[in-house]
């Protein structure tokens, strides 16, 4: 429900189209297309810039998976990630996506970071965690440039194992972001118990057309993060007014269509030049 297809389809580089949106695909159809998919061919990784309000520059990018199935057309990640998890395909999919994400880092300025989403299965699978660390080493990417985004919901189900994975990844020098912050049950508890570098405030707090109550939540989370010396990113920023409000609140990072839609890594050097960042 958080997925705003109207806004997404406005951009030029986006793969979503209204024709595809109207196509109704059953979970079963998606699942069997996934089973048969050539992961390396059909999947792509798009990058969305993360803006540093304090310095007025781009600080990094979030990798977002894009799937164009030859049978079904474009299927959004909110639909295929849960099904990949359910049908035991997550490990291979994550491996393929992470390799693509790491390959895309060559297009980025050396100081910029790359954030990668991990699913509930990823964070509880030790082979996946070892694979992630192995890929970073093999590609000779500085671990400090990699941020793993993990939702509180995925940590919740098997807390002990998830905590081990998080400590392992972070021990190797990568950063950890708590994703979709504020939408789950025990966000505050995790902030305190886990070594978290960054919190991402979900766009659902923004999407409510800036109602007073959601801004109160955002304001308190920003203050909380500051008191714990944790970086804060607000996602789903679409207007200059929202950006100004965040700046006034002392929020450091934002992400959203106001800055840029997700795009291919190869487009980023040009985009950086055009936008003056
Ligand atoms: P997320 O991690 O919360 O990612 C942010 C979502 O917000 C993305 O949707 C992004 O395109 C969208 N977005 C960014 N700025 C704006 C804006 O200004 N307005 C609006 N309305 N939306 C904006 P997307 O790309 O459809 O991804 C949906 C979810 O799928 C992600 O939510 C994430 O949970 C999951 N996902 C995407 N790629 C991967 C992946 O490689 N691995 C895993 N495990 N999950 C992924
Ligand atoms: Ca994310
Ligand atoms: Ca999500
Ligand atoms: Ca989110």
From TrEMBL:
Domain EAL, by residue range, is 27-276
Query: Where does this protein have coiled-coil stretches?
Result: none
| Signal peptide (residue range) | none
Q: What is this protein called?
A: Diguanylate cyclase (GGDEF) domain-containing protein
Q: Which organism is it from?
A: Roseibium suaedae
